[in-house]
Write a structure and sequence with these properties.
273 residues; alpha/beta; five-stranded mixed beta sheet; 9 strands
């Protein structure tokens, strides 16, 4: 089974877990008023916005992984333990077994050393979290396959202004989301065909993982529901941009734009009249 052919070997779509959150939260959100729509207020609620960002980023990375060669198999949104976020992506191929975590930091400067991950100068525990997840996945896949499975981690950074890796961690790589497919394809072979087959079989069994709750919603329906949310968000963004252009053309400048930004943020919370 190939990642290229299926895109989601375990039946989940990229971003399955955060998409479930977005769709659930947005289904309970009040409709925007006509005024809110007119000024391009976002349809996203405060609670759903971070889940939406995570889902979009996971979708982007999932699309990149789907372009891997036929010898690679990819799984999405795998639950590994109670209280621990799902693994965004697991990919198995000649170059080894990798878990891929997605981090979205649009326009930010990212600097990485052996065990330090800085975003705009602020330290984040991403590498330590990845090490913990790698250990859990090694145990789960090892028990299910009967092999001594070694798992490496990849942190795929989405939309950063720049990524500087001063010293790469031995088992956790940090790469730009657009570079991940090329990076994985360049890994030297470390698994035989038989080992790949056993690990892929183990990864595809629901009993290998903590729970299968993320598969409760039919993937095609989930994708359609999320696509509808994305279209609404994009439509609202275009309206905002149109208002920005109008204000600038009319000479309102920074004060006019600031007034509009405040107003549009206010009407975001308005429900139907």
């Amino acid at each position: 089974m190939s990642a290229e052919a299926t895109g989601n070997a375990n039946g989940n779509i990229p971003g399955h877990a955060p998409i479930l959150e977005v769709v659930g939260l947005q289904s309970d959100a009040p409709d925007r008023s006509a005024l809110a729509r007119f000024f391009g207020a976002s349809p996203l609620t405060e609670d759903s916005r971070p889940w939406f960002d995570a889902a979009v980023s996971d979708t982007e990375v999932g699309g990149a992984l789907a372009r891997m060669g036929r010898e690679w198999t990819v799984f999405h949104s795998l639950p590994i333990a109670a209280g621990v976020p799902n693994i965004g992506h697991l990919i198995v191929g000649p170059g080894g077994v990798f878990i891929v975590g997605t981090r979205s930091h649009a326009g930010k400067v990212v600097r990485v050393s052996q065990r330090t991950f800085l975003i705009a100068g602020v330290r984040h525990p991403y590498i330590r979290e990845m090490e913990f997840e790698m250990g859990l996945v090694e145990r789960l896949l090892g028990d299910a396959s009967g092999l001594a499975v070694e798992v490496s981690g990849v942190i795929a950074v989405v939309a950063a202004r720049s990524i500087t890796v001063e010293e790469q961690h031995r088992d956790v790589a940090v790469v730009g989301a657009s570079e991940i497919a090329a990076w994985l394809a360049a890994r030297p072979r470390s698994l035989s065909e038989d080992e790949i087959r056993l690990i892929v079989r183990a990864a595809g069994q629901d009993t290998t993982w903590f729970t299968a709750d993320t598969q409760a919603t039919e993937p095609q329906r989930l994708h359609a529901d999320f696509s509808a949310v994305r279209r609404e968000v994009t439509r609202a963004w275009r309206v905002q941009m149109s208002w920005t252009v109008v204000i600038l053309l009319l000479g309102g400048g920074g004060v006019g734009y600031l007034t509009y930004s405040i107003f549009s943020s206010t009407v975001t919370g308005l429900g139907s009249p």
